[in-house]
């Protein structure tokens, strides 16, 4: 598996998936986002709108080759949670090809700051993410995944 091509596809899928506001109801209370280009297919399935849990699977030639699980929730924000998730989508659009799991190490806009820390490589990784508003933590998340053989 060409790791660079995989990383580039994951970034592209993220930018065209949840970060872009795309998704369809699953019928069992979840949301599914699918993105296809060439031989690559990405499927993101998640549940919940405030506290959420989800997984992403990348297929190459219809064979699952990579996956990630993730979960997150607000941590006492006094405002509308949609402000947090709008900012989270903005941060996820900024993910670098070198570290395509969630967002960049740091992204700031208005009064929000997104940060992520991860260990590993595209083949096996784990990490955390958080959003602060005016220095106060308002969201936290966890993620992990890697290759599927």
Automatic annotation (TrEMBL):
Residues 44-148 form the DUF5680 domain. This is DUF5680 domain-containing protein. It comes from Natrialba chahannaoensis JCM 10990. InterPro entries: DUF5680. It holds the Pfam family DUF5680.
């Amino acid at each position: 598996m060409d790791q660079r091509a995989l990383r580039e596809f994951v970034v592209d899928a993220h930018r065209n998936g949840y970060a872009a506001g795309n998704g369809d109801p699953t019928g069992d209370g979840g949301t599914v986002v699918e993105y296809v280009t060439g031989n690559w297919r990405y499927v993101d399935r998640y549940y919940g709108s405030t506290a959420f849990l989800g997984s992403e699977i990348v297929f190459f030639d219809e064979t699952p080759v990579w996956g990630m699980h993730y979960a997150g929730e607000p941590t006492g924000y006094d405002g509308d949670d949609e402000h947090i998730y709008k900012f989270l989508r903005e941060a996820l659009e900024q993910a670098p090809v070198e570290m395509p799991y969630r967002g960049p190490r740091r992204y700031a806009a208005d009064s929000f700051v997104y940060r992520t820390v991860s260990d590993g490589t595209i083949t096996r990784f784990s990490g955390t993410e958080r959003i602060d508003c005016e220095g106060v933590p308002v969201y936290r998340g966890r993620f992990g995944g890697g290759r599927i053989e």
